[in-house]
């Protein structure tokens, strides 16, 4: 952005982030947050380890 631009601080953020009343609405907590990639990778790793262990037992 230009140093000469007429931009106010409140224009750089979404209204939901600015307003406490909107942030505390019941529909804000309705959706669970997304899982981080590390959690998904660790779960997949556990599944692979369990599957390979069960195959090792069967074979």
Offer a concise description of the structure.
This protein has 59 residues and is mainly α. 51% of the residues lie in helices and 0% in strands.
SSE layout and pairing:
Blueprint: H1 15-18, H2 20-23, H3 37-58
Summarize the structure in words.
- By secondary structure, the protein is mostly helical.
- The chain has one domain (9-58).
- 51% of the residues lie in helices and 0% in strands.
- The chain is built from 3 helices and no strands.
- It has helices spanning 15-18, 20-23, 37-58.
- It is elongated, with a radius of gyration of 23 Å.
- What spatial form do the alpha-carbon principal axes imply? elongated
Please tell me the total number of domains.
1
Roughly how many Å apart are the termini?
Answer: 64 Å
The biggest sheet, with number of strands, parallel, antiparallel or mixed sense and barrel status, is: none
- Residues in helices, as a percent range: 40-55%
Q: Multimeric state of these chains?
A: single chain
Strand content: under 5%
If you average the pLDDT, what whole number results? 78
Which structural class fits the helix and strand makeup?
mainly alpha
Low-confidence runs of at least 5 consecutive residues: none
Topology as a string of helices (H) and strands (E) = HHH
Number of strands: 0
Rg? 23 Å
* Individual helix count: 3
């Amino acid at each position: 952005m230009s140093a000469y631009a007429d931009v106010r601080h409140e224009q750089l953020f979404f209204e939901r982030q600015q307003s406490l009343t909107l942030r505390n609405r019941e529909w804000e907590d309705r959706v669970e947050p997304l899982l981080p990639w590390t959690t998904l990778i660790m779960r997949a790793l556990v599944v692979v380890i369990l599957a390979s262990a069960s195959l090792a037992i069967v074979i």
